[in-house]
Amino acid sequence: MKRLLHTLYGEPWWHLAALLASFALCGYALARLLSGDWWGVVQWAVGAAVVHDLVAVPLYGGADWLLHRAVRAGRPRSAAPVAVVNHIRVPAFVSLMLLLVYWPSITEDSGAQYRHATLLDPGVFRTRWLVVTGVLFALSGLHLTWRFRRDRSHPAD
Amino acid sequence: MNAPLARRRSPWRSPLRGPWLTSVLGAVLLVGIPVLFVTGLLSYAAYNPGLSAVNDKTPDKGLLGFYLFSWPTHPYWLYRLTQGVHVTLGIALVPVLLAKLWSVVPKLFTLPPVRSAGHALERLSLLLLVGGGLFEFTTGILNVQLDYVFPGSFYPLHFYGGWVFAGAVLAHVCLKLPTAVRALRSRDLRAELRTPTARTRPETGDTTGLVASDPAEPTISRRGALGMVGLGSLTLLLVTAGQSIGGPLRRTALLAPHGRSPGTGPGGFPVNKTAAGSHIRPQDVGTGWRLTVDGGAGTVQLTLDDLRQLPLHRAVLPIACVEGWSTGDQHWEGVRLRDLAALAGHEADPPGVFVESVQRTGSFRAVALSAGQVRDGRSLLALRVNGADLTHDHGYPARVIVPGAPGVMNTKWVGRLTFGATGFPEHA
């Protein structure tokens, strides 16, 4: 019996049991989730996965690769360019995370609705994001300068 | 060991990818996602959906509402805490979620795409996991920024989507937990946190296929990568949490929607539904305003002055929104709901109340409150806040304030209270 399942299914029995239990719950909820604008929901859920995997990942991977090329600029591998890359990479990553999460606020996508509901000015978020980004890059740059100075006065090897 | 020359170079060359890194990120999510799920379920319970159709935005929930219970009024800060955690933690987990997806992305492109029937089912489950997870995070993040671009009403989308995601997470944990535990034991976290880039090597003994077959030279250590993700989460936390903590820390929530107060003075605390936005006309809340109190056996009409003559009580309570932001404790003054029930004939053991706003359209212009909520002495029909009359945007002339209830349950511009009812009265 076990061998038959393995031949037909390719995985142990508990693998099938776990997935069937999960599909039962997901199916029950999905039937309700899709009872309205089902096509819209499918587009959003599948679209999010596709956009993430096929657009976002290649995009940020490619940007990271270009950053390396630009910083290294044909020089042989050494610790210094890698440090420069990371001191750009880290603040850029944090800044992009803020942009991603707060995209509707920063782009004022829902600015009118926001002002209407909260009585607050929707125009401040772009400036704030730019300032936070500037501070992140400035701190990173200062840290890098400090590291280079330290390494010059106490060469590691 | 030389790879055969004919083999195509994989584009996935990061030497950091491997079961250990994926499992560390997975372990963080394994703690965080259940907290999001439970606080999310609690938020639904906080609306007391079983009381009335107007409280329930997902009436076809079926078995998914199995856990519902009457939402308590103690402690009064309960919803402020659970919903603040739900939204703030969700936002702070975004970098971890994306890092986790980055760490496993080569698996998406493995060949052959399907090895067996079991593998096909597992990949289908992963589509529910990734699609469901991104859907939940996206709809939540858009909703707290009032950007209602998603396909339908937020409540059913986020509630049912949450259950789909939970179902997929359960399967994923069942199938991957043994691998993850083995992977976490394969490397010493403390040693890893002391390893610089120069000494970073790909993970060894991989059976999961996550480790690059042709790894590039490391450009960041595992310590550095985890630190970067952590810094992303910490920064998001710092620019968000203040809107739920309030006080002087509110201003630290630089990017959060409610990181500022709209004004100063007694009514200067944040608001999310204004008089103008709710189409409240001056004549609706002017001198002609009357509060109708109905107890089933007859109605009483009260002017604002009549209300002011009744015994006034104080309650110190916050406003806590489903969007995660909240105000600090405000000093409310008004007539106790149970005193109004007594006025309508329910001297002892008052029932729940159906509260209607003079607002004529829009979601939550009427809500049903439970008997427990009415009986709590801190539940008021408030006329004043922080020593002054309510402002128009905070519900002048009278609004409900109930300890522990979500913001929208605290109806503003109240026009009618019907004790013992759970729906709109039948109009002849």
Structure characteristics:
heterodimer, A: 157 residues, mainly alpha, 7 helices, 82% helix, B: 428 residues, alpha+beta, Sulfite Oxidase, Chain A, domain 2, five-stranded mixed beta sheet, 11 helices, 10 strands, disordered N terminus, membrane (chain B), transmembrane helix (chain B), transmembrane (chain B), OxRdtase_Mopterin-bd_dom (chain B), Molybdopterin-dependent oxidoreductase (chain B)
Can you put this structure into words, describing what you see?
The complex is a heterodimer of chains A (157) and B (428). Chain A has 157 residues and is an all-alpha fold. Chain A has 2 domains: 1-33, no CATH class; 38-153, no CATH class. Helices cover 82% and strands 0% of the residues of chain A. Chain A has 7 helices and no strands. In chain A, helix 3 (38-72) runs antiparallel to helix 4 (79-101) and helix 4 (79-101) packs antiparallel against helix 7. The longest helix of chain A is centred in the middle third of the chain and has 35 residues, at 38-72. The relative contact order of chain A is 0.05. The mean pLDDT of chain A is 92. By secondary structure, chain B is of the alpha+beta class. Chain B folds into 2 domains: 19-238, no CATH class; 282-419, Sulfite Oxidase, Chain A, domain 2 (Alpha-Beta Complex), CATH 3.90.420. Chain B is 38% helix and 11% strand. Chain B is built from 11 helices and 10 strands. Chain B has helices at 19-46, 78-92, 94-108, 117-144, 154-186, 189-192, 222-238, 242-245, 304-309, 337-343, 371-375; strands at 291-294, 299-302, 313-317, 330-336, 353-357, 366-369, 380-385, 388-389, 399-401, 414-419. A 5-stranded mixed beta sheet of chain B has the order 2-1-10-5-6. In chain B, strands 3, 4, 7, 8 and 9 form a 5-stranded antiparallel beta sheet that branches. Chain B is elongated.
